[in-house]
Amino acid sequence: MDIVVAHDFYQQRGGEDQCVEDEVKMLRSHGHNVTEYFVHNDSLEGMPPLTLAANTIWSRQAFNDLGAIVRDRRPQVVHFHNTLPLISPSAYYATKQHGAAVVQTLHNYRLLCPNGLFFRQGRVCEDCCGKMVPWPAIKNKCYRASRAATATISGMLAIHKLAGTWRSAVDMYIALSEFGRSKLVAGGFPASRVATKPNFLARDAQPGPGRGGYVIYAGRLSSEKGVDLLLEAWGALGREVPLKIIGDGPMAGRVKDACSQEPAIEWLGQLDIEAVYELVGDAEALIVPSRCYENFPRVIVEAFGKGTPVIAPGFGPIGEIIENGVTGLLFRPGDASDLVQKVRGMMADGVARAHMRRAAYRAYADNFTEGVNHKSLMRIYERAIATADASRRRQSIRVYAETRQKTPQ
Prior knowledge:
- It contains 16 helices and 14 strands.
- The chain is of the alpha/beta class and 409 residues long.
- The protein has two domains: 2-107 and 164-200 and 372-405, Rossmann fold; 215-360, Glycogen Phosphorylase B (Rossmann fold, 3-Layer(aba) Sandwich), CATH 3.40.50.
- Helix 3 runs parallel beside helix 4 (90-97), helix 9 crosses helix 14 and helix 12 (298-305) packs across helix 15 (350-367).
- The two termini are 45 Å apart.
- GO terms for molecular function: transferase activity.
- Keywords: Transferase.
- Residues 211-362 form the Glycosyl transferase family domain.
């Protein structure tokens, strides 16, 4: 296939950026011709606010750039990832204008929630889901704690909902979980155009030894990730279980303070991916303490690839990924005391933990390898192409009928 992949890279690199790079490598390794249309949010520095707002709603630059690429390369599919703010939905129309199918992977809940997280003031929030104008987000300054910035995102969502962009300009959406798909459908997206494809591990993983005697957290140090919950749990666990923390973020100061008060906690900061894999593989368990729904945490797949069981809250997509008592343990969302009990249970039963390690690796091998993911993506591309072809036929019939009505008999 000839494919264009479009993505707006974040200023602070995250898992979504890695997912895009891994998927491009996967496509090329299977013989597809991939053209990259990549922009970077570093270019936002110094951009006037009104220009940024206009680009978020309709980027002329992206419309012209994608139009030229699709016209020249004639791809069957243009696959979008992050479009905010430099690509914008204008690029869908440029793609359709030149005959390619449009696929959009949704790495977050942005089309239903301006901050993309379904999370506000320390709790899950779905106040904007399904609304024509997501006014609660504007009221609460949900995007970057700015009413103006939130209004820009909310306006973009409302304008394109009113214009029918989300229903007609995208041939297939990719949700990362059935939970995410159900939210999109509940929010008004056509069920027939929303497929499910999880993240994958772009390597031939092998189980780690799992004999390090510690548990591990790897991710952004922030409230929605449940870092405060993690630290609260270790306030009760004390020195019972060593905890290694990998990552950085706005709660780094609290993590540093916790390390100074509790010797069992070790903060390693940011590490390269190979070091993370090695530490996750030797951990007794990975902890994902998120307070938000997440979408599909890459770190869980990375842990499964190393045969490491996961302790996580039993809600949202995580409840789909982890089979309680088989590939890990699920605790009550937001409940530090239940997290403590699950950690103690995991560490106390070496036989059960060994079974979980084998089951976690099987889950990776069956569901999250590159080969399995490629087959799933090809099926979605085929559906997108068929949808685009059917739309063009309907448009041709409509134009023909209108022409006939206007032609004197």
